[in-house]
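Submission checklist for the structure archive. All mandatory fields must be present; incomplete records are returned to the submitter.

[x] Identifier: Cytochrome c oxidase subunit 2
[x] Organism: Phenylobacterium deserti
[x] Residue count: 347
[x] Sequence attached
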Amino acid sequence: MKSRFQGMRTLAAGAAAGAMTAFWGAAAFANDLIGQPTPGGIDLQPGVTPLRHDAIFFHNAVLLPIITAITLFVLGLLVWVIVRYNKRANPVPARWSHNTPIEVIWTLVPVLILVFIAIFSFKLLFAYHDMPKPDLTVKATGYQWYWGYEYPDQEVSEFVSNILPEEEARARGVPFRLAATEPMVVPVNTNVRVLVTGADVIHAFAVPSFGVITDAIPGRVNETWFRAERVGTYYGNCRELCGVDHAFMPIEVRVVSRADFNAWVARKGGKPPAPTPTTLNAIGNAGGAANTPPNAAAAGQPASAVTSANNPAAAPPQGAPAAAATPSSPAAPAATTQPAPSAPAAH
């Protein structure tokens, strides 16, 4: 009786500890910092890119429930075996050694679980490698022990990004060993391609809030991409053991508005960014609409077809040559056989 009471007390203490852990875990999740680690946090860093959102969903909604269910199931089996088949409860053990249905189950169920996980895993993996058309390209080069950033499209030559000294970091109120002297600056809601390489040893470019991590290998150029959804400052660091000062080469990415990014490029001596495909399409559509005759554009047909439809008697016989236009006839240009440009498609 005493032993059973002690077991119940231990179980109650374990349940209370689990409840407290869940409570403090929920509190920590509610206060997670954006773009940097949270002291005492137990969850993944919140994401600000579509890739990061998908990765968090894969972990929290797919992997974590499956892992929890498997752990509780195995724990239940262990408790059942310990209680039901100990020497005191079962002094005469059974002599059988095989059970075909159970062996089939414990072979097929893990396979089905792995196939289910693979569906989400492959989808996320393809999303990481299916980079959309980039709006901005940044080259990130890892050195011992700092980063160099270059913007080839804007003709911004490489600049060095070192760790911010501790005194200066404390004065600015930014995290030491995460803040950098020269951050990478990118515009918000922009597809950014990052070309990653190394100059001496293997480094790794990683920003947890973006959900990206790519090796920087000398003599090889890897690439990754992200699309930040909100303005802010986001920190990362090198994720390879690249030498004695590995812990002192942080990554700071500052996401700003398009206007602020253009001003930053100008301060760096770069050229203004080229018009985006969306801007070019808008300009082309506006010019095409201004030069298109309204009647032909509305019908999407040649002007001669429009004239013939309005006045059937004016249509020439089949196979007859088109009538020559006379200077005194103001409607003569409408009878030309040259088709008018089609109206632009509505966007």
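[x] Structure attached
Curator remark: The CA atoms of residues 137 and 152 lie 7 Å apart. The helical segments are 2-30, 50-84, 100-129, 166-172, 258-267, 277-291, 294-299, 303-310.
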